[in-house]
User: Fold this.
Amino acid sequence: MEDEDYEYQRALQFDRRISRMPVLQHLTQILIDELEAGARDKILDVGTGTGRLGIALSSVVSGGVIVGIDPDRGMLRVAREKISERKLQNFSVVQGVAESLPFPSEVFDAACLLLSFHHFSVHERAVAEICRVLRAGGQVLSVDPILEKPADEAEERLNRLIEKAFKFAHGPTFRFFTEAELRGLYEGAGFAVERCQVLSFPFRWRKIEEVPMGAHWLQAYELLLEDAPSLVELFERKYFTFRERFGELVVHGEMKWVLVKAVKT
Ligand SMILES: C[S@@+](CC[C@H](N)C(=O)[O-])C[C@H]1O[C@@H](n2cnc3c(N)ncnc32)[C@H](O)[C@@H]1O
Assistant:
């Protein structure tokens, strides 16, 4: 088991890094706007991390409750510190995983997943659990990065190599989904999907720290240079180009997320 202080330092760094990325503030606001939360709602934030979404929601559901869940002790410690600094009464966090939610059935009005779905280990199980803890008519809102659906063998191979690079950092169960796969997972668990919308954001020669998962995208690029140079041009066309400018590595390209909005039937 990792040292608790190491996990805490890593979570602090994560929190600082993501709070400097305007695109993530933008995605958070899109999710909140789509949520249509009532002031007294009970909301579950699955994969809450350092509590960014829960904190933003706490004033939206001022008479309700937000519960964040995450397996990472360091993330939860940072979230608890932020909750305490801001004296928030209606947001709390617990340790656990999406695949086995420690809550009774049908207790939440809504569940949110902000950039967490692709980290889960058993995705079907997680969606089934989220469905179980929602009341009938309850909403699930998810924003998650995607890879584009491969159109041919080269694109399929490219996607596999990108995932391979991300697995080095996040472990063997890490995977990206396509828009259609996400829709199918929610429908298969008993949700009616109201919206499944691709959100694209361009990055015009930005520093790597400004691009979500920028370091991992660079690892994917380096893996391709080494193992499959013939796919580099395709990668640059569909995802990112890395160049050194004035002694600094910069990124140009586009990244895509999917917003899923679904209702428990
Ligand atoms: C990229 S972070 C996003 C955190 C937060 N939602 C945000 O937007 O700032 C992904 C989070 O998912 C959590 N996570 C990983 N596996 C999980 C699982 N099986 N169940 C719930 N959360 C999980 C990680 O610990 C991490 O905090």
